[in-house]
Design goal:
Length: 61
């Protein structure tokens, strides 16, 4: 997740509340659980307006 690109839209938190939350200070999102269900995280990528969320396949590294 690129917090510098986050515009506080909150779509990731609405889409995958177990995986993301918004900072109460600056409103930017943070990944809460790196082991969150991949399908939920994948669903959160699409509605993110600035494209601040990127999924990296750890099995390829
Ligand atoms: S959906 Fe994107 S822009 Fe909106 S809070 Fe989440 S990371 Fe930030």
């Amino acid at each position: 997740m690129d917090r510098e690109r986050c515009i506080d839209a909150g779509m990731c938190v609405l889409t995958a509340p177990g995986a993301f939350d918004q900072d109460t200070e600056d409103g930017r999102a943070a990944l809460l659980d790196r082991t969150a269900e991949p399908g939920a995280v994948r669903e959160a990528v699409r509605p993110c307006p600035p494209g601040a969320i990127t999924i990296v396949d750890q099995s390829l590294t």
